[in-house]
Amino acid sequence: MLFNAVFMIVPVVLLILSVVIATKSFQKKGNAKRSLLLQLASFGAVLSLCVIFPLVAGAASEPAAPSLEPMAKGLQYLGAALSTGIACIGGGIAVGHGAPAAIGAAAEDPKNFGKAIIFVALGEGIALYGMLISILILNG
Questions:
Q1: What is the Cα gyration radius of the chain?
Q2: How many other C-beta atoms are found inside a 10 Å radius of the C-beta of residue 21?
């Protein structure tokens, strides 16, 4: 019981600590690239901790042939989350670049509004495709 509580609390504490350290580093030195790399490295460390720790605990508790079903289910959720998350980041970048251009085009010539809005909608479609893929992963 205590093992499960520690396993749930440690990654959250480490992620919060990494955000605090990256923020302090950026405030002191003002180097955004270094802070981003520090944040990504700490995220990778916590992710590896969360993947390796259950494997080791599962190997110690089941000396017979361990079942891969919980691991497969977890990887299924991870794949669904990554497909949605990365697609939404890409869609946000596309809309972030397309919407100001559409506003500028519509300001110069109001007839271009319909054409410009299509490009913004195409950027939003990327996020919908990611969500569709995650639904297929979860239900497949």
A1: 22
A2: 14
Dig out the tokens for 100 from the structure.
């100001």
Q: How far apart are CA 103 and CA 96, in angstroms?
A: 11
The reply to whether the predicted model has a pTM over 0.85 is no
Q: Mark out the alpha helices in the chain (DSSP H runs).
A: 2-29, 32-61, 69-108, 113-139
Beta carbons of 133 and 112 less than 8 angstroms apart: no
Model confidence band, residue 57 (pLDDT cutoffs 50, 70, 90): low
Q: Which 8-state DSSP code applies to residue 111?
A: G
The position carrying tokens 């030195």 is 29
| Spatial separation of the C-alpha atoms in residues 39 and 139, rounded to whole Å | 33
